[in-house]
Amino acid sequence: MQLIDGKKISQDLKNEIAEVVAQRKADGKKIPHLAVILVGEDGGSQTYVNSKVKSCEQVGFKSTKITYPDTVSEDELLAKISEVNNDADIDGLLVQLPLPSHISEEKVIESIDPQKDVDGFHPISMGKLVAGMPTFLPATPAGIVELLDRYDIETEGKHCVVLGRSHIVGTPMTLLMSRKAKRGNATVTMCHSRTKNLAEITRQADIIIAALGIPEFLKADMVKEGVVVIDVGTTRVKSDKTKSGWKLKGDVLFDEVSQKASFITPVPGGVGPMTIASLLKNTLSAVEMNEN
Length: 292
Fold this sequence. Notes:
- This protein is of the alpha/beta class.
- It folds into two domains: 28-113, Leucine Dehydrogenase, chain A, domain 1 (Rossmann fold, 3-Layer(aba) Sandwich); 139-272, 3-Layer(aba) Sandwich (Rossmann fold).
- The protein has ten helices and eleven strands.
- It has helices at 6-26, 43-59, 74-85, 105-111, 123-131, 139-150, 170-178, 198-202, 254-257, 271-291; strands spanning 2-3, 33-39, 62-68, 92-95, 159-163, 187-191, 207-210, 228-231, 235-238, 246-249, 263-264.
- The strands form three sheets. A six-stranded parallel sheet has the order 1-11-8-7-5-6. Strands 3-2-4 form a three-stranded parallel sheet, sandwiched between helices. Strands 9-10 form a two-stranded antiparallel sheet.
- Helix 1 (6-26) packs parallel to helix 10 (271-291) and helix 6 crosses helix 10 (271-291).
């Protein structure tokens, strides 16, 4: 079993981006600028946004963090998004999800300028992904493809089972794994809460991408020997063994499944760091696309 080290690969990617940014600075070109909007006091969201801001600093990007209380109105939030859309200095914009229940996530996502949609969630971005056109890839699926590539994991002709159908991970992941590309050309089965005989399907998989959000759902008796397992799950569960009082658990029962896997991502330290690195890569692409 080989552990897929997302921390190391994300740092490699950040270092590569930092080199490009340093060269841009030396050449007198525009420095990438990412804006992040955070609504509310959710601990997980705050941690994630702070990590994004810190990562921007590490690679030499400019960053703007815009915060609102969870009582902010939908209209006020949409007005701020419009303002950022029209700010020529800002190259990428993301609104941290989830949002309070009185704000429509759909409206918010649709209001972001597709040319600044570095999260890759806008319907135009998703449509281009479906059509196989160049576009911003959703950050987590893009990070997974990067891991498969850097560990030279063969995907062509393999049976890939994706657990989950969210528009953030599951759906774009099925598209990326089946597309005509170096890390694509797989036969993909998407499973979800209504799938029958799930374990029969997962036992046939050469590659499993687990993105259900159910802690330790995938167990050893559900996989075959030599399977590649990518665990996207990051559920906070209470723990009396940590200072914070909680710990992160993935969708995979790691101790069991790792005994049968050829490659596997840990939680934390697997897919998570790659999401932020992919976001930085998309922001750099946004600047370059505007120049061209």
